[in-house]
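Module 6 notes. Inverse folding takes a fixed backbone as the condition and produces residue identities as the prediction. Think of it as a translation problem where the source language is geometry and the target language is the twenty amino acids. Below is one complete input and output pair. Work through it position by position during the lab.
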């Protein structure tokens, strides 16, 4: 859903090979773009060293359930990597390996986490930050009953986003709550009221940033959160096996099969991505707040979803920094570290603007 957009964005200037487990999908991409294709199922075979040896960089765009193991395999192969998979593991568990292999691994390099981290990193060099809030969501314009939702990235990752405990920081202390907790309503111009709730989106920021107050919330249409909570508390997302007659099943597998059918977007479903960032603190001995907003829509001309655009083009912007030799910091290098390098966040924002993704702030406009 995103990897093909990444490949398409890079293939006009770079020699790009894309691998996938679906031959039909690869054939579609080969017929559409100037890329080479390789049939490979990374969920079964991660012996990649010989295959990756000719390449300068690998981009990981796999579902979160295999993301950590695949990232580990890439690093073990000794190749620079930019990763957009959303796995539950701590990427810094691979720090020692990445240091030993002397490679650059930019993790969580999508829209949020990703672009949000880059922008926060920019401000860590300018001010003493006291608070960081991120509200983000990707939604269809058409609100189909009952879920009012379509999954424009891995639907498996969407469900796990609703299940993982949400971690955030209040007054310098780590707080852990259930996902979907602490709902609040926010207004989005042109859309109306959306509902925000806790999810575990801060990720590397919990280790890299000493900010007293940090939180990330996911945005959905009002009512979606309650339905997910009903399914969650009724056991439909349980991963423990249960026996029904002579069959043993996991409830989450049945629920996923049913939900994915309803959440699957049509090829040209009109959708949008919205993100609001609030960064406040002290700058030059004065209290200051920066507010950033993104509102991006499905690209009618290229038939590219806004989720793929905002995620994929952030990834390719950072990939180009590595390929062009400007970003050569070694080890696990999350986007907030990239944003803290003078001029690099601005380069990414300019790159997005060239692709008609506008980031508006109360101080600067990109």
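Target side of the pair, the amino acids:
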């Amino acid at each position: 859903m995103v990897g093909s957009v990444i490949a398409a964005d890079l293939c006009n200037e770079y020699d790009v090979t894309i691998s996938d487990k679906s031959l039909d999908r690869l054939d579609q991409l080969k017929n559409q773009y100037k890329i080479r294709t390789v049939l490979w199922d990374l969920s079964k075979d991660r012996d990649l060293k010989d295959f990756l040896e000719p390449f300068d960089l690998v981009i990981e765009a796999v579902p979160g359930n295999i993301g950590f193991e695949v990232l580990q395999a890439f690093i073990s192969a000794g190749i620079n990597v930019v990763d957009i998979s959303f796995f539950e593991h701590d990427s810094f568990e691979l720090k020692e390996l990445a240091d030993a292999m002397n490679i650059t691994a930019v993790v969580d390099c999508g829209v949020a986490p990703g672009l949000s981290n880059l922008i926060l990193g920019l401000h860590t060099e300018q001010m003493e930050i006291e608070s960081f809030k991120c509200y983000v969501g990707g939604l269809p314009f058409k609100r189909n009953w009952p879920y009012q939702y379509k999954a424009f990235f891995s639907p498996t990752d969407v469900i796990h986003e609703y299940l993982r405990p949400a971690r955030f920081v209040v007054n310098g202390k780590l707080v852990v709550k259930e996902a979907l907790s602490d709902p609040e309503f926010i207004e989005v111009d042109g859309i109306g009221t959306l509902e925000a709730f806790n999810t575990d989106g801060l990720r590397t920021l919990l280790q890299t940033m000493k900010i007293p107050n940090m939180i990330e919330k996911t945005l959905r249409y009002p009512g979606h959160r309650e339905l997910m909570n009903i399914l969650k508390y009724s056991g439909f997302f349980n991963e423990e096996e249960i026996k029904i007659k002579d069959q043993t099943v996991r409830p989450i597998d049945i629920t996923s099969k049913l939900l994915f059918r309803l959440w699957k977007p049509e090829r040209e479903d009109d959708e949008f991505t919205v993100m609001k960032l609030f960064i406040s603190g002290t700058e030059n001995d004065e209290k200051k707040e920066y507010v950033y907003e993104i509102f991006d829509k499905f690209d009618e001309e290229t038939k590219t979803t806004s989720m793929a655009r905002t995620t994929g083009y952030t990834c390719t912007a950072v990939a180009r920094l590595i390929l062009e030799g400007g970003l050569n910091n070694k080890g696990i290098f999350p986007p907030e570290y990239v944003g803290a390098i003078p001029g690099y966040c601005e380069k990414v924002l300019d790159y997005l603007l060239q692709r008609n993704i506008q980031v508006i702030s109360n101080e600067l406009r990109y």
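Reference fact for the lab report: The chain has a mean pLDDT of 94.
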